[in-house]
Amino acid sequence: MKVKGIISEEKVTLPELRAALLGVEAERIAAEKEMSYEFRRSMDHANQLAKTTPEKSKDLVDKLLKLEKMKPEIAYRIANIMPKSRDEVRAIFAKERFTLAPEEIDSIIDLVMAHF
What we know:
Structural class: mainly alpha
Strand content: under 5%
Distance between the termini: 35 Å
Largest sheet: none
Mean pLDDT: 92
């Protein structure tokens, strides 16, 4: 399948993507269409890596964006990865020009754990 043009673009979390792919899958099954290799691989990827519900992941992104040093790209990355340790959070922020205080890292981990 070739993409002819992008109509719109928005950031979504992996659980939200999984929900959208499940809807497309249901439509294709109802229409008795074949699932392409790429679609099946996308579904496998989303099923294996989505760790929470779409509602919880969106709520997590909203709460993360309220933090002081949080960028939207990093908030979505955190919601997709769901880091459980300080090292994982530090790895996500590795390319940034600032470092997080231990209290800030702990608040991110607490938010993530509340949305599992």
